[in-house]
Each structure stands twice: as structure tokens, then as C-alpha cells.
Predict the 3D structure of the following.
Amino acid sequence: MNTPNHRNDDIPTIYATKNQEIQMNEKLLVPAVEAAKMLSMGRSTFWNKVKLKQLPQPVKIAGITRWRVSDLRTFVNVGSHRDTPV
């Protein structure tokens, strides 16, 4: 069945800004442990850099702290080239 929210492989998608498709199984938010792994650093280093605002800041949803995967990707692609070492 092909509907606007299904691709040919029947994996449901949602539509984001600028016509980007996001797979429903793709994570939008990750916990600190996973965010630290994505940036190849230990948990304590990650938290220290968050505290110093050298890394993207988390979002809190219903008392749960998570990082946007898009913020982490942007940091790696753009933000990590600033004067602040990672």
C-alpha cells in the first residue's frame, strides 16, 4: 500500500522540514551514554564538556535528559571546528 506516509518498502516515515524524510526507526534523541559514544569520548569527559557548554546542550522531556542527534551531527560537522577543543 502506497500512501503519503509510506514508501514502497512499507517503512513508515514522517516528513520533516525541507522535504527530509526521517525513518520511524531512526533515533531523534539519545541519552548521554549514547551521545558520548557518538563523539568517541568517555561519560565524564562528555558531561564536563556539556557543563562548560563546549558541546550541544540537552533537552529535557518529562524529566528525561536527551540530546538531539541532529545537534550532535551539526557539532561534528561544523561546531567542532571552532577554537574550543573537543
The chain has a mean pLDDT of 79. Strands lie at 13-15, 21-23, 29-30, 59-61, 64-68. The longest strand covers residues 64-68.
